[in-house]
Structure formats: structure tokens, C-alpha cells
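Example record used in the benchmark description.
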Amino acid sequence: MNDFNRRHLLATTLTGSAALAAGWAGTVPAAASPAPDSAPAARSLRVHLVAFDGVEELDLFGPLEVFALAAALGWPVVPTLVTSGRPGRVRASFGTEIEVPGRWDPSAADAVVVLGGGYRKRDGAGVWAEIAKGTLPQALRRAVRPGLTLVGVCTGVFILHAAGLFDGRPCTTHVRAKQDLRDLGHDVRDARVVDDGDLVCAGGVSSGIDAALWLLERELGSEAASGVEALLEFERRGTVLRTRPGRRQ
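Model output (C-alpha cells):
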């Protein structure tokens, strides 16, 4: 299966979990063993990933694959692609067509992942267009409630800024956008992932994978994250800068 078809499969099946589970059946290495039978069912993690025209492909598909693989391994993770409007189709930064059947309902999520993309194209699709439209920042502002974690990936943190959701709090973003974020008055840290409790920020592009793995570890335990990390053949870089406790202890 080529890379485009693989991405399309993940997008059009919401999570890709069923396909991934079938593909990995009988081939899971010991280091990536499925969730233990004793894993508490109550410790679930419902993740909504917000897609829009101009979204960076890896910003989206990196975290999506992390959460989908966790679900395929039997961990209580439910990833869903959503838009801030009606379900439909979006066109990503490099032209990937993504079918998004999920409805915007952050009340049914434990974490909402806000992605980046199109940062260099002020007059094209991407984060600046979403900020100018105002729909997504307003929806995010209304979504805030106790128990919900907002995750900003790459330049998606600028959408969270437009929503007024992290003034004065530790954060990070893509290395080439950090000064812009500092100029807006934010406490920008030089870390790949910054965890400030109900706000988690990731640096550029592939850092979204680190943030997704960290969220798995924080909410479901290190075994969940290490199993997915082994299957992805991905090695997390550095340490998470954690400034306050998250939703689960």
C-alpha cells in the first residue's frame, strides 16, 4: 500500500484502528504487547483531532497514527477526526484529500488536538485562514471545560492564541515561529513538548508524535506509550517540560 493510500485509509475510517488491528494481528513484538487484561476500562482517552484546509499532513497523521495504533493494541483510546463545522472533506498542505466524517463535539472528548499548517502562506489555506474566519477559535473558546486537555501541535498553537486560551502560560511551537509567538507576549520554552496541565504544546511537525506519545503515557501509563513507540520505530527526543499536573495522576 503506498503512502497516500495508507493516509487516505486512516482518514476515511476515522481512526484506522480496525485496519491497523488486522494488519498487526499475530505480528506484534513483545516490546509492543497489547493492553493487559487488567487495564482499567474507566481510564479511557477520547481524542478529537481538528482538521482544516491547509493542515500539515504530518501534524495530523503523526498523532493520528499514535492514537490509532494504541486503540489497535487494545488500549481504551478513541481518536476521531473532526472539523469545527460540518463533516466533509479538507485538502491538506501538500494536496492530500481527507474525508472528515466526525462532528464537532468537544464535550465528548478528553483531549482536542489543534494542528498547524500553512504558516508561511498568509494569504492561503492554513492557520491564518482559520484565524481570519474565526470559527475555529470561537469553537475552541466555547469548548473549554474542566477535564478537557487542549493540545497545540506546531503552528496550531497560534489558533489557540487567537482563541485567547493560553496567555502567560508555558508553551512551544515550530522553531521558525517561536519568535513570532514570543512577540505576542507568550512564555515560549525551548522544549519539544511542554505540558502545562490542561494545555500541552508540541514543537514543529514531527514533534506532534512526541506529544501524542506523551499524552498516552500521561493518561494511560508508560506501557501504552512504549508499545506504540516500538511499533512506530520512533524514538522520542529529549524530555517533556512539565510545569503542572495533567488530568490523570
